[in-house]
Amino acid sequence: MKKGEKRKKELLKIAYDMFITQGYENTSVDEIIEKAQIAKGTYYYHFQSKEQMLEEVIDMMIASETEMAEQVIGMDIPVPQKIVMIITSVKPTEAEQPIKNALFQPDNVLMHHKVRKKLINVITPILSEVIKEGVNEGIFECDNIPERVKMLLILSDGTFNEGTFSEQDISVFIDMTEKLLGAEKGTMGFIYDLIDKSDMEAAE
């Protein structure tokens, strides 16, 4: 890795930590420069603005999730399971949970919105490819697939990203997913077996 690229990655990591801990809106370029111990000219050599830096921080955040989602496509597993694996690949792990919590704070509204929007835009073509596979296999019967995928991702985000969910929430999610994809009733029922039951009990 070239020296310039290494320095840029270091700056992105510093910005990422500061955006998460004190909020994007509450973090100034001068604070990032001071934390990184660099000249202002060095910062603006790599980034035209704080907004550009935010976009690149978000790209860094979702890169691993995108890679995991792409790997699912070639797996030798049923299409419905591929869909669930792709959706769960963009959910935070236990170690990443503090980051998710920080994104939901009022000071990070803009950052959270941009992360969600970019994730949907990146994952939609990947998930669309899997659903087309399901249509070809006769598992699903639907058109306008990219639009349906976006609706599915928004539905998933609303169901599982609010911290707690009930058994009824899961039931509604399964039912709406099957209707959205034109699948027979019960096709996505296996999702029940993947849910942490203690989370559901706590939510009820």
TrEMBL record:
Q: Which Pfam families match?
A: TetR_N
Q: Does the keyword DNA-binding apply?
A: yes
Q: What is this protein called?
A: TetR/AcrR family transcriptional regulator
What does the UniProt keyword field contain? DNA-binding
What Gene3D superfamilies does the entry give?
A: Tetracycline Repressor, domain 2 (1.10.357.10)
**Gene source species:** Methanobrevibacter thaueri
Does the keyword DNA-binding feature in the UniProt annotation?
yes
**Which sequence ranges are marked TM in the entry?**
none
Specify the DNA-binding region ranges. Answer: 28-47
Residues of the HTH tetR-type domain: 5-65
Give GO terms: molecular function aspect only: DNA binding
PROSITE patterns assigned to the protein according to its UniProt record, in alphabetical order: HTH_TETR_2
